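Notes to self, Glycerate dehydrogenase:
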Amino acid sequence: MAKVGVLMPVSMQKAIFSEASRNELEAAAQVKWNPTDVQFSDEEAAAFLQDCEVSIGSWRTPKPTKPILEACPSLKLWEHAAGSVKGFFTDDLRGSDIMIASCAPAIGKTVAEMVLGEMIIGLRRIIPNAQSNQTEFRAPVPNKLYLAASTVGIIGASQVGRYFLQLVRPFGPKVLLYDPYITQEAAAELGATKVDTLMELCEQCDAITMHTPMTDSTRRMMGAEQFQAMKDDAVFINSSRGGCIDEQALIAELEKGRLFAFLDVSDPEPAEMSNPIRTLPNCIYTSHLAGGQSYHIGQQAVEDVKAFLNGAKPKMVVTWDMLDRLA
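result:
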């Protein structure tokens, strides 16, 4: 029976693996769980994984460094029960045949769920109304919208973008998608209409949600021109990376009172205490809450390991040629 080593501390194990997922993994392999509630050092990880075929790590656990890989020649799969694995792809990994898999698709589910809630709250103007109700009796809610009457814009047909499309579709809004890497036909299959330019999306949408990775081509792709093109009272949501937008340009429009923003990320992160996104009444700034630990991640990790042990591929195997398109 194949051996699987789970590097994450006990408290993280409990947050990521449901009892059912844990039992399912133990039925498929001989599992070694980190018995402590502290992170292993690289040396401790190398000793722990020495006879394992599969390593399951997560946030802040050791990465597949050259010393670990040399000490653990039986390792064939490194399952990252978290999101980005870009940091794994260093010279330490060159020449190794170990498979690297990410649970980013599972994280996409929780991010999309939060974005849907924020979009509904933003379009209904629930927060401005609640603020007005602190000083007025039955304050009116001007320009409120509901999803079916709205035009929704999605920037990036990423894992999260696609999950969000699935969630928003039953509400019936018009959905526009900006992504240079997708065809009109593929966008239509996802339930969206592809637009050719970001400006076109900004000008037409009542709410825009950003789901792009942080790359050279996406850095500050939403700038002053794009934010100024957005409709008055439009909702902007960013749960991808803070560096994908020109934060100062967004702040300038927020200070005019024109837009409402939900920002789960900033640049830098966390935002300085003096940053206006913390205090502007038309901006909700949260602490990277959209993703994070969830049972979705543990379940994907189990399914990925089972697939690998049965000769199939995990859901999201990451290779060197994919790095310029990933977060």
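- The two ends are 35 Å apart (CA to CA).
- The chain has a mean pLDDT of 96.
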